[in-house]
Design a protein that fits this description.
The complex is a heterotrimer of chains A (745), B (158) and C (434). Chain A is α+β, with helices and mostly antiparallel strands and 745 residues long. Helices cover 26% and strands 20% of the residues of chain A. Chain A has helices at residues 2-10, 80-92, 120-147, 172-176, 209-214, 248-252, 274-284, 366-377, 400-413, 425-431, 534-552, 556-562, 567-580, 640-660, 710-725, 736-743, and strands at 59-61, 67-71, 99-103, 155-156, 161-163, 169-171, 229-234, 241-243, 257-263, 266-271, 289-291, 311-317, 327-335, 347-353, 356-361, 384-388, 419-422, 438-446, 452-461, 512-518, 592-600, 607-617, 622-633, 689-694. In chain A, the strands form 6 sheets. Chain A has a 7-stranded mixed beta sheet with strand order 9-10-7-17-14-15-16, with helices on both faces. A 3-stranded antiparallel beta sheet of chain B has the order 4-3-5, covered by helices on one side. Chain B has a two-stranded antiparallel sheet with strand order 1-2. Classes of the chains: A alpha+beta (745), B alpha+beta (158), C mainly alpha (434).
Amino acid sequence: MNLDRRQLLAGGGLLVAFSMAGHGLAQLAGGGEGGAAPRPVRPDLPGSLKSNPVLDSWVHIAPDGRITVFSGKAELGQGIRTALLQVAAEELDVPPGAIDLVTADTARTPDEGLTAGSHSMQDGGTAIANACANVRMLLTRTAAKRWRAAADMLTTNGKAQVTAPDGRSLGYGALAADLSLHVEAIPNAPRRDPRHYRTLGHDLPRVDIPAKLTGGAAYVQDLRLPGMLHARVVRGPSYGTRLAKPQLDRARKMPGVVAVIENGRFTAVVAEKEWQAIQAMRVAQDSDYVRDLPLLPVAEGPHRLQKLPTREIQVLDTHDGAKPVWKTVRGSYSRPWYSHGSIGPSCAVALAKDGGLTLWSHSQGVFDMHRAVAELVGLPPEKVRCIHTPSAGCYGQNGADDVTAEAGLIAMALPGRPIRLQWMREQEFGWEPCGCGMVTRVEAAIGPDKRIAHWTYEVWSNSHNNRPVGAGGYAVAQEISPGFPAPPPKPIPMPEGDGDRNANPLYVFPNMDVRYHFVPEMPLRVSALRSLGAHLNVFTIESVLDELALAGGVDPLAFRLAHMQDARARAVMIEATNRFGWAKRPRGDGRRGCGMAFARYKNIGAYCAIAMEIEVERETGAITVHRVQAAVDAGQPASPDGIRNQVEGGILQSLSWATREAVTYDATRRTSFDWGSYPILRFEEVPGSVAVHVMDRPGDPFLGAGETAQGPTSAALANAIADATGARLRDMPLTPEVVKAAIGV
Amino acid sequence: MTLSITVNGKRHQVDASPETPLLYVLRDDLGLNGAKYGCGLGQCGACTVQLDGKAIFSCITPVSAVGDRPVRTVEGLGTVDRMSPLQQAFRDEQAAQCGYCIAGMIMRAQALLDADPRPDEAKIRAHMQTNLCRCGTHMRILRAIRRVAGLPSDGAAA
Amino acid sequence: MVTLRRTARSKWWWVTALLLLGLAGALIALALSWRPAIAPIAPPSPGSFAPAQVVRGAMLVKLGDCAVCHTRDGGRPLAGGRPLATPFGTLYSDNLTPDPETGIGTWSAAAFRRAMKAGVSRSGAHLYPALPYEHFTHVRDADLDAIYAFLMTRRPVREAAPANRLIFPLGFRPLLAGWKLLFLHPGETPVDPSRSAEWNRGAYLVEGLGHCGGCHTPRNLAGGEIRSQAYAGGIAEGWRAPALNAANPAARKWTKEALVTYLRTGISPDHSAAAGPMGPVVDSLSQVPEAEVRAIAAYIVSKMGGSPSAPVAPLPDHADAAARRFPEGAVLFGGACAGCHGPGAPMMGQGRPLLSLATVLRDSDPTSAAQAVLQGIAPPVAGRGPKMPGFADALTDQQIAAVLGYLRARYTDRPDWKKLPATVAKARKEGAQP
């Protein structure tokens, strides 16, 4: 740590010291997942500045004018690097190319908790915007002092210069020499006027894409450190199993094998070359397996959750006086367990050296990790450095945390040699925490006025938040000896929520009874998957709305608008349906049909409305999605195209979840282990067209948009199927078999 | 043992056991990042490179099977400063999210365009069916391929 | 349901076939070929069919695999247009939707029955035996009527099949009357009172609508099934359909239970995965009531004979000996195949069958083994299930031959296959799309 800081200081300039705020249980960053984010020391400041108020932890300006911006948020493929760069460039008023952005490194960047829950722009982007606005203000004041001019007469020109009305100018580098940024931010430093934005709100091409198109080093998988060894773990087919008789002696004799690591039940092979490690792993894994945990719920699927003990959480309980009931709708909805399905299985590099441990990881929570892995390997946290290094999209907690902890354990056993641990495809499918299977149940009614009269809603779910904040959170912690017990699972409190995320409708309904049956016992290992419980809750709410609209003979759009007061929510619904041509849409004719749905993610994030037209092939039950139109309000867009890219991706991923995905298992193991047993959407199955309109909201606060499409897309699909065929499908996945069974011949 | 393979027009001597999948030779012995490990089962396409002009899964192609047939990886198409038309189309369409699948996508699409410079939408989709993207970048990938194939950007949307 | 399969045993056999067929046909045609048209009807309204009959028809259409041949890639189900490659040229399947212009909208039930049982179109023209009326002729009228009801309640699709491209003189349909005289044997499947009702149901389905013999029975030079060698193994779309009689080469005797699992899921733990043209059959059978599949399985298993309870022989795995004899194959196997099929591989950890259980490796004919390596295996049921990549673009014919030689030596006790490179080259050619 000291070394790194000295290296940073060697460059000279403004960076004096880090402001390391104390850690205490406080604000829950990252949608309430993971550990406690650093304690707010300046609650009056916006975003992550609350806990890291000192400017030099965010911005450094070298004498040559080169700017470094530090962010605790990580590039997950969502384009956050580019968006943050745009924010910083705008508020510093410099070209984006003048900035080096350093992200999520426990030795260099502010602790911003997790990169999750669509908080990166809301917290991290807001912090950088205000820190940079503070810095620009200070630079302007410094120039004013030097020129003995009034600061309010001076301006900046977009080229990292402060300019005076008489045409004089001073570069930021020269000004920075006279200025200490080791000061706390003020809450109201003047922000750039949205009417004069040069970078923000423009489609800056993503800075990470060129390397990804040309074979540049872009991923943790591409790290090649001198003397690096290749490791593979030796495991049973899935979580909860172990090999009866791993063939470790045979593996030891394989060519290139350097070590076979054994620690309790945790075993790994380490070899000079990657292929040698794979060969040794296979030899070692040639064994039967035994299951150590309770059997998997083969017959019941997610409905198993309804038979397990629960902790009751009342989300909403409103009483508006009994209203007359005209028609009542009841239904139970569910989704199966999902895989994150990262295209690249999880990988990490670890190096134990000089009493410390360095980890290169694709974890979304490197700050939690450096504490949790320290506990796991028995080092003080300051001896463990975690450097976020991008990898294949994770969409939540896939194997990235586990693989890093395991790489750390292996590295501690082989100090001095960097260890690259790559999980195999089947290990990712078998051992990662799944997205939660869930069940909901609704009873709702409309009165003679065709408005909702009462709304009773229940949701059953495990915790969506089992991210490791201590050693026990890693699967390997229960394999090693002595081990660490898994911590008891906890729900995330509202307003973020987890299983109950978005279970509280943004619509105005009277007489609401919304309950979360939180189920601590986990039939399958689960943790965060993009949008958490919002996916099924929005699917349910938006399906029921269509059922009620149908019962009342009201157009689904009109029915929603009649129950929505939030002007921005109304605006995205109207925008999406106008662009879709909702009024003139083809009406359901047995084959073709249209559906729409809406949600504001967590009721505090981005707004998203979706309309789509589909066709059901009656002979096969196959669904073709012809076109999708979305409208999204994410506040001030950093890069509209970045938001479009994220929302398009969310739409396709949600279609894949809704139409074909389910983790399969028999009583003793997961049987989804490859892409044949866990099919996802492929090119011939994607929609004919997808259009995403990004609302222009100049200067409005950033609203995270990365997860906002998950719920509305699946719901719009179910509504379109119902429109096309009259069949209301409530249990995902809506496979051709399910559709066919529902519609008959 | 020492084997000789031609990658991106250059002859290389590599020391690897002959059954080693080409993927690991490209990545670990030649230091090329383009081909990715995705499944090792020939099911996802992240490892796609061209062998003798055909798109293949390098994760299940033994290096000794390559023989004299030329191997082409995404590094052989162009560089950040001098991108190939297809790479440039991917950049113009911003056709990547996490990007892990993209080098494989480019190599598979390039094999199609080399064989048929003017494929129609159905042919493009059928050809790309073997390659998986989890971020849901398909629409942009299709637009990038259409751009090079001279098709309208919105394809033959039904 | 293609009758005119590629069954080339040498380069000139089909010339002989054509000459024989041509001569015979020309003579007989004059006298016998004429069939009357059946008057067109106004397309019946979908409501005129009993819903239960339509539902039953849907199931029978699955049992008959109708949509497999009568749907082109990317096309509407049953709208035809799928090319069927034969040594005599390319046939295109007809549109079975009730479109009056391009489909069967003006066909009466009688016309439909005649087509299925006698291979004659409503217009009176003879149909090519790619429509397996050799088998459909055994289907009862009530079942044909149910199929008709199902087809006539589909959404009409206006789509004309492309014209067939056949070599001279086979475009002259009256010749087919001669073919039928030789190979069409009408009449119901006989009931065997000594067998169970399930077995008899299976016989009815297998011999009739299921037309299993269409692929699994060898054909003579004129493309007719050789009845004396029923289920002795045949050819389908460039793949070898294994024998379903006592010569079935499976390592473990098929039991009824194993066959039911296989036919409904595409894989059984004691046998390998369904591949090639068998995939769509499994897809269809996964969607019919299990009792129908049990009946099919009961009948087929009885054809194979033998006692499943016989002592189970240990499965061969001669890894070292095979590697000595086929060193190149062993190396290629290590990099290309062992990741799924080798010890400790994930697929093995999931309990998928060992290669020593693979019927294609034990068959005397290596054609299907070659096709499986070339084309791979698509997951048969709704895109989910065993999935194997094809190696056609990665490995040369010589290399695939080396792998096949190694596999045969390692995983079976049977004699080496001969002329493997030529077999692979031929399989590659025939596996290509028409």
